[in-house]
């Protein structure tokens, strides 16, 4: 995701300054914070075959793929135009600048030229961003969308065509829903990937240190399109190894319509 503030005239939404205070439920409402530097989400950065072989030897785990920036599940197929999933906002910790994002999206793996995505980014300093993006454009913050630790957030992307779509976030705890309609997009989707991801994104050209997010669980995870409906079952499972296969920083698993991503450290 690339974060910047702007006025969403086409959608009739005014973007708030990214970053809003993340607090426990029943505390004061979340308040906007000063704007951040631009952030960017990247297509998956898979590790080399040599690095994967090293990880398989040291971990004893096979049938898992590895990348330096994504952890989660990627379903590879054709005609995906709808992806959804619900997470519970985690409490995070870590060093200064540490962060992570949880999102659902279309494309970005076997199709690296576009991603339609929406999600929540959370930071070790106790702030968050609720955003939407169509790569390679920047991601932009939803306004008026409060989030607290423990809230249930449903994330959905719908592509009405390969160049148009809608991103929706629903706070099932507060009842608030925000939506952005993409009418002018910088790239065309391939509609070959559906994903549920926790990401170590980039800030000013460098990948952030992954915050300790505990466990993020995508429930009710589903995708659909011209080939019918599906769950993450049978998807490619992706773990994060940020150092060319020396260690695993976040691991993922899939069970039916649930994708679980755990911080390993």
From TrEMBL:
<dbReference type="Pfam" id="PF01828">
    <property type="entry name" value="Peptidase_A4"/>
</dbReference>
<keyword id="KW-0732">Signal</keyword>
<feature type="active site" description="Proton acceptor">
    <location>
        <position position="199"/>
    </location>
</feature>
<dbReference type="InterPro" id="IPR013320">
    <property type="entry name" value="ConA-like_dom_sf"/>
</dbReference>
<dbReference type="GO" id="GO:0006508">
    <property type="term" value="P:proteolysis"/>
</dbReference>
<protein>
    <submittedName>
        <fullName>Peptidase A4 family protein</fullName>
    </submittedName>
</protein>
<dbReference type="InterPro" id="IPR038656">
    <property type="entry name" value="Peptidase_G1_sf"/>
</dbReference>
<dbReference type="GO" id="GO:0070007">
    <property type="term" value="F:glutamic-type endopeptidase activity"/>
</dbReference>
<feature type="signal peptide">
    <location>
        <begin position="1"/>
        <end position="16"/>
    </location>
</feature>
<dbReference type="InterPro" id="IPR000250">
    <property type="entry name" value="Peptidase_G1"/>
</dbReference>
């Amino acid at each position: 995701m690339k974060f910047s503030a702007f006025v969403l005239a086409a959608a009739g939404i005014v973007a708030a300054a990214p970053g809003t205070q993340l607090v426990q439920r029943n505390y004061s409402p979340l308040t906007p914070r000063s704007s951040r530097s631009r952030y960017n989400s990247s297509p998956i950065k898979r590790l080399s075959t040599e690095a994967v072989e090293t990880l398989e030897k040291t971990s004893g785990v096979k049938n898992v793929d590895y990348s330096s920036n994504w952890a989660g599940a990627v379903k590879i197929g054709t005609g995906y135009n709808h992806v959804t999933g619900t997470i519970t906002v985690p409490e995070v910790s870590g060093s200064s600048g540490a962060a992570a994002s949880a999102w659902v999206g279309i494309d970005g793996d076997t199709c690296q030229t576009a991603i339609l995505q929406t999600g929540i980014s959370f930071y070790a300093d106790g702030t968050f961003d609720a955003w939407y993006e169509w790569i390679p454009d920047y991601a932009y913050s939803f306004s008026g969308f409060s989030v607290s630790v423990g809230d249930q957030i449903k994330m959905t992307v719908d592509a009405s065509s390969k160049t148009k779509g809608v991103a929706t976030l629903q706070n099932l705890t507060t009842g608030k829903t925000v939506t952005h309609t993409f009418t002018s997009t910088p790239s065309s989707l391939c509609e070959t990937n559906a994903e549920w991801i926790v990401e170590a994104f980039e800030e000013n050209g460098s990948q952030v240190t992954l915050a300790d997010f505990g466990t993020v669980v995508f429930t009710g995870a589903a995708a659909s399109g011209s080939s019918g409906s599906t769950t993450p079952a049978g998807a490619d499972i992706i773990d994060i190894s940020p150092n060319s296969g020396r260690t695993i920083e976040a691991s993922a698993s899939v069970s039916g319509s649930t994708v679980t991503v755990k911080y390993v450290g």
